[in-house]
Amino acid sequence: MTTLERTRPRRRTWEETPLAERAGLQFEVERFLYAEAALLDARRYRDWLALIAEDIHYWMPIRRTVSTSDLDLEFTKPGEMAFFDDTREVLEMRVKKLEAGSAWSEEPPSRSRHFVSNVRIVAVEGDEITVEACFRLYRSRLNSEADEWTGRRVDLLRRAGATFLLARRHLFLDQTVILANNMSTIF
Amino acid sequence: MTTLERTRPRRRTWEETPLAERAGLQFEVERFLYAEAALLDARRYRDWLALIAEDIHYWMPIRRTVSTSDLDLEFTKPGEMAFFDDTREVLEMRVKKLEAGSAWSEEPPSRSRHFVSNVRIVAVEGDEITVEACFRLYRSRLNSEADEWTGRRVDLLRRAGATFLLARRHLFLDQTVILANNMSTIF
Amino acid sequence: MTTLERTRPRRRTWEETPLAERAGLQFEVERFLYAEAALLDARRYRDWLALIAEDIHYWMPIRRTVSTSDLDLEFTKPGEMAFFDDTREVLEMRVKKLEAGSAWSEEPPSRSRHFVSNVRIVAVEGDEITVEACFRLYRSRLNSEADEWTGRRVDLLRRAGATFLLARRHLFLDQTVILANNMSTIF
Amino acid sequence: MADGSHASAWGEAEILSLFDASTGELDRRVLSDEGLYRLELERIFARAWNFMCHDSQLKDPGDWLISWIGEDQVIVVRDDDGRINALLNTCRHRGNAVCRAERGRAKSFVCSYHGWNYGLDGRLIGVPGLKTYYHDDLDRSRLGLARARVESYLGFHFATLAEDAPSLHDYLGEVGRIGLGMLCAHGEVEVVEGIQKNVIGCNWKIAVDNLFDWYHVAYSHNSAQAAGFFDISKILHPKNQMVMLGEFGHAIGGPGIPPERQATIDGLTDDEREAMSRAQGENQPRIRPRRAAELMGPVGVRSEGHPNIFPNLWITLSGVQMCLRLPRGPSKTELWWFTIVPKAAHPALKRKMIWEANHIFGPAGLLEQDDGENWTQATRSARGVAGRKLGQRLSMGLGRDEAAASGNGGSAIEGLISEHGQRWLYRAWTEWMAARDWAQLKANHSRPPTGTV
Amino acid sequence: MADGSHASAWGEAEILSLFDASTGELDRRVLSDEGLYRLELERIFARAWNFMCHDSQLKDPGDWLISWIGEDQVIVVRDDDGRINALLNTCRHRGNAVCRAERGRAKSFVCSYHGWNYGLDGRLIGVPGLKTYYHDDLDRSRLGLARARVESYLGFHFATLAEDAPSLHDYLGEVGRIGLGMLCAHGEVEVVEGIQKNVIGCNWKIAVDNLFDWYHVAYSHNSAQAAGFFDISKILHPKNQMVMLGEFGHAIGGPGIPPERQATIDGLTDDEREAMSRAQGENQPRIRPRRAAELMGPVGVRSEGHPNIFPNLWITLSGVQMCLRLPRGPSKTELWWFTIVPKAAHPALKRKMIWEANHIFGPAGLLEQDDGENWTQATRSARGVAGRKLGQRLSMGLGRDEAAASGNGGSAIEGLISEHGQRWLYRAWTEWMAARDWAQLKANHSRPPTGTV
Amino acid sequence: MADGSHASAWGEAEILSLFDASTGELDRRVLSDEGLYRLELERIFARAWNFMCHDSQLKDPGDWLISWIGEDQVIVVRDDDGRINALLNTCRHRGNAVCRAERGRAKSFVCSYHGWNYGLDGRLIGVPGLKTYYHDDLDRSRLGLARARVESYLGFHFATLAEDAPSLHDYLGEVGRIGLGMLCAHGEVEVVEGIQKNVIGCNWKIAVDNLFDWYHVAYSHNSAQAAGFFDISKILHPKNQMVMLGEFGHAIGGPGIPPERQATIDGLTDDEREAMSRAQGENQPRIRPRRAAELMGPVGVRSEGHPNIFPNLWITLSGVQMCLRLPRGPSKTELWWFTIVPKAAHPALKRKMIWEANHIFGPAGLLEQDDGENWTQATRSARGVAGRKLGQRLSMGLGRDEAAASGNGGSAIEGLISEHGQRWLYRAWTEWMAARDWAQLKANHSRPPTGTV
Ligand code: FES
Ligand code: FES
Ligand code: FES
Ligand SMILES: [Fe+3]
Ligand SMILES: [Fe+3]
Ligand SMILES: [Fe+3]
Question: Is E17 an interface residue toward D (CB < 8 Å)?
Answer without folding.
Answer: no
